[in-house]
From TrEMBL:
<dbReference type="InterPro" id="IPR002935">
    <property type="entry name" value="SAM_O-MeTrfase"/>
</dbReference>
<keyword id="KW-0949">S-adenosyl-L-methionine</keyword>
<dbReference type="Pfam" id="PF01596">
    <property type="entry name" value="Methyltransf_3"/>
</dbReference>
<keyword id="KW-0489">Methyltransferase</keyword>
<dbReference type="InterPro" id="IPR050362">
    <property type="entry name" value="Cation-dep_OMT"/>
</dbReference>
<keyword id="KW-0808">Transferase</keyword>
<dbReference type="GO" id="GO:0008757">
    <property type="term" value="F:S-adenosylmethionine-dependent methyltransferase activity"/>
</dbReference>
<dbReference type="GO" id="GO:0032259">
    <property type="term" value="P:methylation"/>
</dbReference>
<dbReference type="GO" id="GO:0008171">
    <property type="term" value="F:O-methyltransferase activity"/>
</dbReference>
<protein>
    <submittedName>
        <fullName>Class I SAM-dependent methyltransferase</fullName>
    </submittedName>
</protein>
<dbReference type="InterPro" id="IPR029063">
    <property type="entry name" value="SAM-dependent_MTases_sf"/>
</dbReference>
C-alpha cells in the first residue's frame, strides 16, 4: 500500500527558483536594517519582485493542465519518497521535485502537436507526468514508450495512466534505460520525438545511442531536461556536483557534435532541443 504524507513544499530546483529564494532572504535581511542606502534597498527589492513574479505569471497565463495531470502531480507530491527509499520500496532515491510539472508538460505537449509526432520515447518517466502530458497530444494511434528503472514509480504512473483516456497510448519499459535503448534499437524502433530525463551521468550515452542508431527518426527531435542543472553549468566548475559536471560535459558534447544543431531554452531547469543537421 502506498504511504502518503501531508503535501510538503517543493524546494526550488531551477536557477530562477534558487535566485528568487536568495533575493527573498536578502530582502528579509535588508528589512531589518536602517543603515543601507535607499537606492541599494530599492534595487534589491525590485530584483526580487522581478524574479518572484515570473513563474506565477507564466503559470497563470498558460493553459491549465488536465484533471488527470493535476491528480498525478498531487499524488506524486504526497508520496513519502524519503521513507520509500529507506524501506526499500523504491530502488532509487526519488523526490517530488523530479516531476517536470505544468509549464514543462504543456511545452512538451506543444512540441508533440508542432512536430505531429506519432511515436515518442521518454527516457526517465518517474510517476509519468511528462509521459501523460505528451500522450495527451498524440493522435489516437500514437505511441509513447516510457523507460523507467524504478518499479514503484512505474506502478504509480501506470495507475494514473489507467485512469486517463490517453493512458493506453503509453507503454512502460521497466529496466535500465541503456539496456532498453539497445533492445528498442535492435527491434528497429524509431521515434519522432525523444525526451531525455533520466540519469544525468548517462545523458551522453543516451544521446550517442539515439544518433548512432535509427532510434531518432531522420527528421526527429530530442528534448533534454535539466541542461542548466540549477545554474551549476555556468557557475565555477569547482562548485559543481557530480550531476552538474555531467551536464556541463553533456552540453559541451552536444555543442561539438557536427551531426546536430541545438538550443538551450531557459525553461524551468533548462530544456535543450536538438535536431540532426542533415536528416
Ligand atoms: C527526473 S525523473 C523523471 C521525471 C519525469 N520525466 C517527469 O517529468 O515527471 C528521472 C527518472 O529517471 C529514472 N532513472 C534514473 N536512472 C535511470 C536509468 N538508468 N534507467 C531508467 N530510468 C532511470 C529515475 O528512477 C526517475 O524516476
Amino acid at each position: 500500500m502506498s504511504s502518503v504524507i501531508a503535501k510538503p513544499t517543493a524546494r526550488p530546483v531551477t536557477p530562477l527558483g534558487i535566485l528568487t529564494k536568495k533575493l527573498e532572504a536578502a530582502v528579509q535581511e535588508i528589512n531589518q536594517r536602517t543603515d543601507l542606502p535607499a537606492e541599494l534597498v530599492a534595487n534589491i527589492k525590485q530584483a526580487w519582485r522581478l524574479a518572484a513574479g515570473l513563474d506565477p505569471y507564466i503559470e497563470e497565463y498558460t493553459t491549465q493542465e488536465s484533471a488527470a495531470l493535476a491528480a498525478l502531480a498531487e499524488t506524486t507530491a504526497t508520496e513519502a519518497w524519503g521513507e520509500h527509499f529507506t524501506e526499500g520500496t523504491t530502488v532509487r532515491p526519488l523526490e517530488q521535485e523530479m516531476l517536470s510539472g505544468h509549464i514543462e508538460g504543456q511545452t512538451l505537449k506543444m512540441f508533440v502537436h508542432m512536430t505531429k509526432a506519432k511515436k515518442v520515447l521518454e527516457i526517465g518517466m518517474f510517476t509519468g507526468y511528462s509521459a501523460l502530458a505528451m500522450a495527451e497530444a498524440l493522435p489516437a494511434d500514437g505511441l509513447l514508450v516510457a523507460c523507467e528503472v524504478d518499479p514503484y514509480a512505474a506502478e504509480v504512473g501506470q495507475t494514473a495512466f489507467n485512469q486517463s483516456s490517453d493512458g493506453a497510448k503509453i507503454r512502460i519499459e521497466l529496466g535500465s534505460a541503456l539496456e532498453t535503448l539497445e533492445k528498442l534499437a535492435e527491434a528497429g524502433e524509431s521515434f519522432d520525438l525523444v525526451f531525455i530525463d533520466a540519469d544525468k551521468k548517462e545523458y551522453i550515452a543516451y544521446f550517442q545511442k539515439l544518433l548512432d542508431t535509427n532510434l531518432l527518426a531522420p527528421e526527429g527531435f530530442i528534448c533534454v531536461d535539466n541542461t542548466l542543472l540549477q545554474g551549476e553549468v555556468y557557475l565555477p566548475a569547482q562548485e559543481r556536483s557530480v550531476n552538474g559536471e555531467a551536464i556541463a560535459q553533456f552540453n559541451r558534447t552536444v555543442a561539438l557534435d557536427p551531426r546536430v544543431e541545438q538550443v538551450i531554452l531557459p525553461l524551468r531547469d533548462g530544456l535543450t532541443i536538438i535536431r540532426r543537421v542533415n536528416p
